[in-house]
Amino acid sequence: MKITRWEILLKKQTRAISKKSGIAVAFLVCFGSFASYAQEQIIDPSVQDAEEPPKSILFPAGVPAPYFPSDAEIVNRAEERLSNLTGSSSNDPQYDQPVEEEVLLQPEEQDDTAYGTLSQTMGGMAKNIWQPSDIAKIQMLMNALNLPTRSPAMDAIARKLLLSTTTSPTGMPILEEDTDLVEIGNNRFARRNESFDEDLFKQFINMRLKELIERGNLEDLVSYIQNLPDQMLNPEKQNAEILMLGGDFIGACQMSQQIRSGSIENQNRNNRFSTNAMMEDDELTDEEQFWLKMQAFCRVLQEDNAGAQIALDMLNERANIDFVFNDLLGRLMEPPETRGTFFSGGLTSLEPINYAIWTFLDQPIDANLIEASDPLIISALVINPNMSVENRFQAAARSYLSGGVTANALRNIYDLQEFSNAEYNSAVRMAEFDDRPIADALLYQAASKRTDDLEKAQILEAIWKRATESADIPRKAALNSQTLKSITPSTRLINHAHHISRGLILAGETDSAIRWYDFARRAAAGGDAEATRALINIWPLAILASEPGDIPWSDSILNLWWNGQMVLSPENRDAKATLLYALAEAFGYSVADDKWAELITENHVEGIQSIPLAVWREMIRAVGENKPGEAVLLSLIAMGQSGPGSLDASGLSTVVRLLRSVGLEQDARNVAIEALVANGF
Questions:
Q1: What is the pLDDT of residues 557-579, one digit of tens each?
Q2: Could you give phi then psi for residue 597, rounded to 5 degrees?
Q3: Rounded distance, CA 178 to CA 185, Å?
Q4: Which end of the chain has the lower number of beta carbons within 10 A, N or C?
Q5: Residues 6 or more apart in contact with residue 226 via CB below 8 angstroms
Q6: What angle do CA 613, 618, 621 make, to 5 degrees?
Q7: What stretches of 514-659 adopt beta strand conformation (E)?
Q8: What's the CA angle centered on 152, arms 128 and 401, to 5 degrees?
Q9: How far apart, in Å, are the Cα atoms of 637 and each of 145, 152, 166, 401?
């Protein structure tokens, strides 16, 4: 039975502020009649036009500081490139916009020195981002990167970095005067030439594969493997297991066939994994046992039960009998109508090959076994439609804790859960006494099924409360994006305007959030104190989420926001202001020197981290030496597993400037928004 690799596809958070009417009046004065602004599109003249380079508070040229490299030239180049490394203004209409059509490459222009599953026209990064870096340095940095992350902004960056179609790190800078560069669309990359190192190319592909495994998104991982160039995927147990977990049983079986027949390039006649060698050895290693299991499994899939039994007998003669595998395979060989139930209660872990057989048998898996399984197996359970609803929910709840499941995957699992009308009607009350994941699913469904906007907003407020306790608002916002979008701005919801608009911004629905901002602005202009409070809260998020000029920025508005923070403790007030000012300047807005002078105090908030000095130095050096991939990788290491919200203002400003400098404008905004929300905005 001849099979091909492509015959199977992958299955698949308000602080209280004084309500005196004076605030509303002040807001109306300071914002200069918002109604008039909306009609005439007049922008306050004090707004710093973001087309000019952002004001730098981190890289003052010529001023010594402990975090600068000793080479002054590198510092100066970093200053310049942090303003505009790519030569494209962040306010250029063409900047960071998706290309409408994929550039078609002629056969002679195909670049076979680059690999990835995310092209630049699909949102990926440019092909040469890694080229100027040294592969040993990239290996060291990837080893220091901890994935997965619970930050959606960081995960999106990591995904681009690992999946973009790129060439390998060669340590060779890209020079404009190079004559062997081909320009296709917005990309300039080197043609394949005699200096192309295929071993280096293969090494880098497998380095990225390792990080994708740690990231834990099985769909992206399997797609990456399935599209690898010929001979680039090492025929290893781990790779075969990934293919099986992603549903590509044919790809896994083809790898098994390579091992069995000894048809791998550079393999010698004494190949230990060939069938003859296995028969001659007295003992079988764990690797050899795995490939014999694969032979038996694949032959069953080919309806060759006799051949499967031969491989199984050979396995049992040369190794300790694996009774679980034997039993599972035996049941798979039986006709479906005569199969009995396999009880998994006594098992302590679930191996990928056993999971694959369970997939075909469509039998229940004990919950304790799911808890003890490898993260990739748990990820596979989440997206496997053949698994029971109970097993998929258990796996999703487990995977979600570490960040291994996306909002889309979790949404699909939540939608499968069934609740009664009585449970929907008392969801908020029940969730107060239930911290289990099932209560999160109930709240999600209850909010999405309500037709009354006020009831939706009230349930969402309960969701934000639970998410705040677990520092998980960004992911919950993405999860509930459709419910958030369905709520129409109205006067009776003005007390909910802040958390609704915040959720929308976190979910990437900026246009919908700005509608709430505009509604609150108009109500505040009419003297509504509650609307004024909401507007003060929404404004910082709206500023950083929007393009320059879309939301007004001026010293008077900033003064009003500052006055609204006086109900906070001095430590929290100063910390919030420092963070907002630093991020605003990183995006090109101007903060007056007297505003910064107000923050020269001894008020400090505990628990805020700074970027480690070694990481900081390397970030500056990578930007100064025009090494985009390396710089972005360092920005992820700088934020760490705790995410953007754990960094101090100077560190966040550095990360944002770096991301903008390499063209990741929206990613920089997402990082800034997450940081603001994590710090009480």
A1: 999 999 988 888 888 899 999 99
A2: -60, -30
A3: 18
A4: N
A5: 5, 10, 243, 248, 251
A6: 130
A7: none
A8: 125
A9: 6, 15, 21, 20
